[in-house]
Amino acid sequence: MQAMILAAGFGTRLLPFTRLRPKPLFPLLNTPLLLLTVKRLQNAGFDHIIVNCHYLREQIVDALAGIPGVVVQQEDMVLGTGGGLRLALSLMHDEPILITNGDIYHTVDYARLYTAHMENAGNVSMAMHDYPRFNKVTVQGERVVSFDNEHSGTALAFTGLHVLEPSVLQAIPLEKEYSIIDRYREILQAGDVICSLRVDNCSWTDMGTVEDYLQLHGKLLRQEIPLWDEFAVQPKTSFWVDPGTDPAELSLHDWACVGRIKTESKKTLRRCVVWDNADLGGSDGYDDMLLS
User: Are residues 106 and 238 in the same domain?
Assistant: First the structure.
């Protein structure tokens, strides 16, 4: 089975932190999300994984170097979701390909999604769920019918997970910025089928803002959402501190995730994520913050 992780975006809403690293390399419990996603795909049986990158791409290239079965596509210009997929067409095998965003944490079963697509009649299958914040796609039964509120039906949110036949990418202009949703609009206008695969019982989080990123950590550490097996650690409390950090220098409250740091004085942290080598010299205490 093959998959592609879209990891080329700027992450504008996460500035200024995305000046330091691209969003897919933001750590979850001190491990970059992109590496966790690759490992999770491999554990689900995907042996050919393409990752595209553009913004701060040298960091992604370095992070993925030497991982068997992973091919990195470096993009010199912004190509969008469709343009990036079209450029990768020559790297794909002649079989369905699962697409996932590099900045989401979810518990959707990759292999089950792939198998469900192969059992459907359409060339595209989109994983959909009820998420009011993003409910913008109209679905009738098991089919997507509109991206523009042109038809009656149920409004659902696209998870960013979809499986498609590589042939549908041929119509996308090569080396131009293009959205895959625009290609899907063309498919619907041509009368072809896009299948809707409901995944409502799965946890799903978009790391779109700093608040989203912090809330995701809080939910993971309080065990309100499932932890992936791929995490190097499985915290037993709502605090996770890198073994290289002296816990005696920290006073932790509610929840906190702390990377490898050194401090000059004792710090109080409440609902904070602290990256490796972060500078905590400005204050004795921090609440609800990402510290880099």
Answer: no
- Pairing relation of β-strands 154-164 and 124-129? antiparallel
- Residue 225: pLDDT over 90: yes
Q: Is the distance from CB of 172 to CB of 119 less than 8 angstroms?
A: no
CATH at residue 159? 3.90.550.10
pLDDT at 16: 94
**What is the b/e burial string over 208-220, where b = at least 16 CB atoms within 10 angstroms of the residue's CB?**
bebeebbbbbbbb
Does the reported pTM lie above 0.85?
yes
Among the three residues 166, 201, 236, which one is the final residue of a domain in this structure? 201
- One domain, residues 255 and 141: no
Indicate if 107 and 248 belong to the same structural domain.
no
Residues 106 and 237 grouped into a single domain: no
Q: In which domain, by residue range, is 268 found?
A: 210-291
Can you tell me the distance from the alpha carbon of 58 to that of 66, in angstroms, rounded to the nearest whole number?
Answer: 14
